[in-house]
Design brief:
Order of helices and strands: EHEEEEEHEHEHEHEEHHEHEH
Mean pLDDT: 92
Shape: globular
CATH architecture: 3-Layer(aba) Sandwich
Strand order of the largest sheet: 1-13-12-9-8-6-7-5-2
Radius of gyration: 18 Å
Structural class: alpha/beta
CATH class: Alpha Beta
Amino acid sequence: MRRILIALLALIALLLPLAAECEEGYEEHPMVSEGLKVYGRFYTPEGTEGPWPTVILSHGFGGTWEESKLYIPLFLERGVACYVFDFPGGAPKNQSEGSFLEMSVLTEKQHLLNIIDEVCAMPQVDKVMLLGFSQGGVVTGLAAVERAEQIVGEVLFYPALCISDDGHAAYGEKENIPDDPKAFWQTVGRVYFEDVWDLDLTGMVTAYDGPVLMFHGTNDPAVNHSYSVRAVELFHHGELVLLSRIGHGFAQQTVNRVFPEIVRFMDAVGLTGAEE
């Protein structure tokens, strides 16, 4: 079943409160992945007892866990716990170990696989859903294929399925990749493009057979929304919400517009907990 929606959700947004800053209600939960320290936080709903349905949120290129700040309170209000973290090497500077120059989609995928395994083993955790932003969306999609039995579904925000194509457009041949290529606005290591050079990221991500909900702005300057349009046609159980005139990364108003669709999706996959 596939569905593409042009999001006209302004009225629904009025039904949602503004997300509060998420500085309370969490405990630090570091992990070790591939020998590197991973900084993580586990947010739990107040007034309810675990185990909780849980969403693992993966930030995008050069980001940190704080990319999830606008979403965490909305999940907590619905009785859903959140695990957020910094990818090792996922930014020039964050709270995890690892070098940004040694990072690629595949190194992040392996870290996410390890994180999924550990979160799923936590006694406080019940069902698990994945959510990823941009590059974190591609990483989430790849990890979902390998951990399909451990998750109930995935939500992908403007997934950066363009990374292989970006490398091809910039350098032409694999041997032409320099030691210090540019990706988006940053200098990365050669491994960044080398690891995905021969990969069909869209084909790999859409091998996941479970339910998928995608969001993408039609004015996205970093990842053209055509990548998500193609992907949703290949997913077995995919939906795509296209947001007219919205760019890359969502502000508070847009988050409030799209979150009712996430709630509907969570209800469908059985992830919604008790509301406070």
